[in-house]
Design goal:
homodimer; 29% strand; two-stranded antiparallel ribbon; alpha/beta; globular; 8-stranded mixed beta sheet
């Protein structure tokens, strides 16, 4: 059971290009980041890490990611519970398997409970940083893409201090893949 | 012949901790980044990438890195030419094989000429960004260390636009290494 941040980033650490919005959730040029997902159903590393994400038993998402993804129509995958961390709960009813939480600890506790003995997929830079700050993030999986976006939304912001990690795993696109599409999948455990 | 930025970074993209200075060039906690260099003379990946850096035939450094390193006593390795990119040339004579340049294009041209058919090691976040902006950086080699520094000096700042990369190589510490010391060495080519 792990709360695992799962994010695709440029080599310079951006998760979107500039000017991200609900109409352009990845910002200018940011769609480039998701090239590797074209291989998500192939047997290689992309398929492996995608299958792991789809095997999580709950989702904990930041509000921005949730809205920019069209609230996933209320179902991220397989109808698993989706806990959305937000400053202000929306007035309209939560769709599908979504529930809202305004406190990061509460969000983490609810997602853990919902996932049972499964893992939780944490999505969004804001949610990841909030969980890191309160010591509730267990793992980090980054899909590092060969591009410098130069501007946009950064995955990691300021933290009050160091966070030690332990290396878990390193996977890479196969040598047959185009050089511009060779993502590197890095997994780390957060030390407490 | 490549101008290759060679930098050690935390997973969140910092090259120093906070408050870096000549007295504490890596900032608070930043020395953690260089754990992997303990293995620089071993036959594994750390030894391989270190040997490559030491085989470069010139150095192009930013001024801050140069000063914080005590000007390397005028000799970074094997007496190769060191071109220091600076806004203002110091009054005192340049030590050893150091020369100063105030323009990034001039610095790049001089370093390339000095290296002949060898590579140039580019050092410092500022120098790397300056060369990226004018399209004079050829390669990027990052040594990614399992830690989030949370604050400090970032390797990559804002760029005017995207820079496309091509994957070149991925090396990792051997499985015998402590999990906190497992660096990942990533090399990319900058597309023009």
């Amino acid at each position: 059971m792990a709360l695992r941040l799962d994010m695709t980033v440029s080599l310079d650490g951006y998760v979107t290009g500039p000017h991200d919005s609900p109409d352009g959730p990845l910002g200018v040029g940011g769609f480039r980041l998701f090239d590797w997902l074209d291989r998500r159903l192939d047997p290689g590393p992309a398929g492996e890490v995608y299958a792991e994400a789809m095997a999580t038993r709950a989702v904990l998402s930041g509000r921005r990611t949730y809205e920019h993804a069209g609230r996933w129509g209320g179902d991220h995958h397989d109808g698993v519970p989706i806990v959305v961390l937000t400053h202000a709960v929306p007035d309209d009813p939560a769709p599908g398997s979504v529930e809202y939480a305004t406190d990061p600890r509460e969000a983490a506790a609810r997602a853990r409970a919902a996932a049972g003995d499964g893992d939780v997929a944490v999505m969004g830079a804001g949610a990841g940083q909030a969980l890191l700050r309160i010591g509730e993030l267990d793992e980090i999986e980054l899909h590092v893409v060969p591009v410098l976006l130069g501007q946009g939304r950064r995955l990691f912001g300021d933290l009050p201090g160091h966070v030690e990690l332990e290396f878990v795993r390193r996977l890479g696109s196969p040598p047959t893949e185009d050089l511009r599409r060779r993502a590197t999948h890095l997994r780390y455990r957060v030390r407490r």
